[in-house]
Amino acid sequence: MSPNNRPKKNSATRGPHGRKRAEANRTNLYLVGALIVVLLVLVAIRFLSTPAAPTSQDGKPVAPALVSQLVAAARSPAGYSVAGGGTPPYTIAASTPTLKVGGKPALVFVGAEFCPYCAALRWSLIIALSRFGSWQGLTYMTSSATDVYPNTHTFSFLKARFQSPYLTFLSDEIEGNVAASNGQYPLLQAPTQLESALLSKYDAAPYVQSTTSGGVPFVDVANRFIWGGSVYDPGLLAGLNWTQIGQDLAAPGANAVSVAIMSNANLFTAGICKADGGQPASVCQLPGITQLEASLPPAGQ
Question: Which residue range(s) make up the domain with 40?
Answer without folding.
Answer: 14-50
